[in-house]
Write a structure and sequence with these properties.
By secondary structure, the chain is mainly alpha-helical. The protein has 2 domains: about 5-70, Arc Repressor Mutant, subunit A; about 75-220, Four Helix Bundle (Hemerythrin (Met), subunit A) (Up-down Bundle). The chain contains 12 helices and 2 strands. It has helices spanning about 5-15, 30-35, 40-50, 70-75, 75-85, 90-110, 115-130, 135-150, 155-165, 170-175, 180-195, 200-220; strands at about 55-60, 65. Strands 1-2 form a two-stranded antiparallel sheet. Strand 1 (about 55-60) and strand 2 form a beta hairpin. Helix 6 packs antiparallel against helix 12 and helix 7 (about 115-130) packs antiparallel against helix 8 (about 135-150). The radius of gyration is 22 Å and the shape is elongated. The relative contact order is 0.11. The mean pLDDT is about 85.
């Protein structure tokens, strides 16, 4: 392990243990380096790395603070990495979605409230009236993100939002090239929503699995 990695691990441990909480200001550089047994140079490199990951916020002339550590902020780096992936890597994105989204849909069937169900019905209705494939895919992304939000786990919702946006181009291409893809997507969304609304956890999870698997199969064939 490099000295910088060691410094990162020590700062991370301070956060995980609660010694540093979200919003806290880090001790002066010299004091922190001495307390952790680090050189000031390795500490600076660790702070720089953690600031790039949105764990720390370096404020010029003020000090260094622990960020809010909220999931959307921490996952911005993941979104950036996903954006840099090549198109032929999108299959991996769908494979991860096939793991996460059925679980999220099952949780949504247990936790979705009336407001979430109403919003989901509006999204499905809008998808059915979409005049272009691009509009349909935008509704498709909103549907999956809202399902994940209804699951009640912000971290899971943020992960799914990042992955869902990354797969938008593949979904548009499918809508343009696969016969009945638009109608099938709307029908599958409706079935998933009905299961979530009815609180049918296993049915909702199964329908989501089939839904994602269908798109994954098409992507695999297209590549």
């Amino acid at each position: 392990m490099s000295v910088t990695d060691e410094a990162i691990e020590k700062i991370k441990e301070m956060i995980v243990s609660g010694e540093l909480a979200p919003g806290d200001r880090l001790p002066r550089e010299a004091d922190l380096a001495g307390a952790l047994g680090l050189s000031r140079n390795s500490l600076r490199e660790a702070v720089k790395a953690l600031s790039l990951l949105n764990v720390l916020d370096v404020r010029q002339g003020d000090g260094t603070y622990v960020t809010s550590l909220e999931a959307p902020l921490l996952l911005e780096t993941l979104s950036f990495i996903l954006d840099l992936h090549r198109d032929d890597d999108v299959l991996q994105v769908f494979q991860v979605r096939s793991i996460l989204e059925p679980a999220a849909t099952g949780l949504a069937a247990q936790h979705a409230d009336d407001e979430a169900i109403a919003e989901l019905r509006e999204i499905v209705a809008a998808a059915g009236e979409a005049s272009t494939v691009t509009e349909l895919v935008a509704s498709d992304i909103r549907f999956h993100v809202r399902i994940a939000e209804a699951a009640g786990n912000p971290l899971l919702a943020s992960l799914i939002e990042s992955l869902s946006a990354r797969s938008a181009r593949a979904r548009i291409w499918r809508g343009l090239t696969q016969q009945h893809a638009v109608e099938q997507t709307v029908a599958e969304h409706q079935a998933i929503l009905d299961a979530v609304d009815a609180g049918e956890t296993e049915l909702a999870r199964s329908l989501a699995t089939v839904h994602i698997a269908g798109v994954t199969q098409w992507v695999r064939g297209a590549l």
